Amino acid sequence: MSEAPVRVAVIVGSVREGRFGPVVADWLAGVAGEQGGFEVDIVDLAEPDLPLALPAFGATPSAAVVAEVGKVAPRLAAAGAFVVVTPEYNHSYPASLKNAIDWHRAEWEAKPVAFVSYGGMSGGLRAVEHLRAVFAELHAVTIRETVSFHGAHTRFGPDGLPKDDGAAVAAKAMLDQLSWWARSLAEAKAVRPYPG
Q1: 116-127 tens-digit pLDDT
Q2: Quick check: pTM over 0.85?
Q3: CB–CB of 178/83 below 8 Å?
């Protein structure tokens, strides 16, 4: 008997014009498809239908804000796991990603989160370290294995694929862990509710 696929939301965290995130997210979705066992939903925070114009988290939500948050919340809630694709801006991650994280809470709880980062010399790893602390506060489990691209623009060919096979090897290891955690946490929650 085969297991149902893990529904994974791949979140493209940058909304900056000319961003590289969609290239990385599309590549990762392809790796997940080849590996099997995943149903991928790319949640690009720059999609026209998603709420880019949300006020900063903490503002008293109006009916309009609640409606905007409601555009992405069901997609996050339906996911059994997440992969956050993030650049590094000033030694951390983009404000657009922080705002999207903060407007949701229950959607992250007791689910695994993996990271794919890109940037200059650090490959976005400083952004990932900041994100680990944020997701711990939201009762999510972060995956140890990550994928990072140092000088990402030069690491991908015109076909949208990394020039180096090592990236796919790293992604497969990360996705194996993500699948294990997603299935294990889902089984645990089926036996007893998470006491968050």
Answers
A1: 999 998 999 999
A2: yes
A3: yes
